C-alpha cells in the first residue's frame, strides 16, 4: 500500500490547525510525488458516511505541500458544499487517495467497477470541452453499472442534453487505480495525544464524488 494513515492524520491536523490559528505538525511521511485526492465525510448516527467535500489534482504533487493544500481546499472550498465548521470536526472522517496506474481506455467501457477510477473528457453540444472523474470506490458504493456511472459522469461534467450512444463513443476515457485509507476524528485525537507537539517549518482541480 502506498498510502498510510499518517497521510490522513496530517490532513486532519492541517484542518484543525487552520481553526486553531497555528502551524500544522510536521509530516511523518516521505515527500514523494503523486496525483492525490482528499475526501471528507460526515459520519451519520447510523454509521453511514455522507460526502462533505472531495477535491484533488491529477498532476503529481509533493505530498507535504499537496496534502496541506487539498486538506483545506476540499474541506473549505468545495463549491458543492458550505465550508466545514470547527464544530463539525468530531463527526468527520478524512480519506486520502494516491492515484496510480494511469492507462488510456480503449472505449468508455474499458474499465472495471471497484478496481478503476475513471476520468472522462468530452465535448458538450455547444462544443466546449469538459471533463469529470469518479474515484475507484464511487461506482461500487452507488451500485451503478458501467453505463450508469458513465452517464452520471457526463451530467457531472456539464452535459445537459440527451445522452446518446454517439456521445458515449466520443468519450476519451482514462482509467486509474488508487491507494486509499481513511481515519476518523477520534482516531486523529488518539494519534495526536501520543505525539509531542511538532511544528511544520515550512493546479487544475477535480471533483471526484
Please, could you describe this protein's structure?
Pfam families: AMMECR1 (PF01871). This is AMMECR1 domain-containing protein. InterPro entries: AMMECR1, AMMECR1_dom_sf, AMMECR1_domain, AMMECR1_N. The structure is a single chain. A hairpin with a 5-residue loop joins strand 4 and strand 5. It is elongated and about 60 Å long. Helix content is 30%, strand content 32%. It has a 7-stranded antiparallel sheet with strand order 5-4-6-3-1-2-7. The protein has 209 residues and is α+β, with helices and mostly antiparallel strands. The mean pLDDT is 93. The protein folds into 2 domains: 124 residues, Hypothetical protein ph0010, domain 1 (Glycoprotein, Type 4 Pilin, 2-Layer Sandwich), CATH 3.30.700; 75 residues, 2-Layer Sandwich (Dna Ligase, domain 1).
Amino acid at each position: 500500500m502506498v498510502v498510510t494513515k499518517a497521510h490522513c492524520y496530517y490532513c486532519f491536523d492541517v484542518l484543525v490547525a487552520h481553526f486553531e490559528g497555528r502551524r500544522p505538525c510536521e509530516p511523518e511521511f516521505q515527500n514523494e510525488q503523486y496525483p492525490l485526492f482528499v475526501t471528507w465525510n460526515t459520519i451519520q448516527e447510523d454509521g453511514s458516511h455522507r460526502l462533505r467535500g472531495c477535491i484533488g489534482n491529477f498532476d503529481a504533487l509533493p505530498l507535504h505541500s499537496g496534502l496541506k493544500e487539498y486538506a483545506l481546499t476540499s474541506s473549505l472550498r468545495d463549491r458543492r458544499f458550505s465550508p466545514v465548521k470547527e464544530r463539525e470536526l468530531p463527526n468527520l472522517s478524512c480519506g486520502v487517495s494516491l492515484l496510480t496506474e494511469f492507462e488510456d481506455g480503449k472505449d468508455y467501457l474499458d474499465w472495471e467497477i471497484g478496481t478503476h477510477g475513471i476520468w472522462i473528457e468530452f465535448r458538450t453540444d455547444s462544443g466546449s470541452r469538459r471533463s469529470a472523474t469518479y474515484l475507484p470506490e464511487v461506482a461500487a458504493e452507488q451500485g451503478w453499472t458501467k453505463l450508469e456511472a458513465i452517464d452520471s459522469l457526463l451530467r457531472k461534467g456539464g452535459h445537459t442534453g440527451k445522452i446518446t450512444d454517439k456521445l458515449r463513443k466520443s468519450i476519451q476515457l482514462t482509467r486509474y487505480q488508487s491507494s486509499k485509507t481513511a481515519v476518523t476524528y477520534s482516531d486523529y485525537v488518539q494519534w495526536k495525544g501520543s505525539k509531542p507537539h511538532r511544528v511544520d517549518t515550512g493546479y487544475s482541480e477535480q471533483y471526484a464524488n
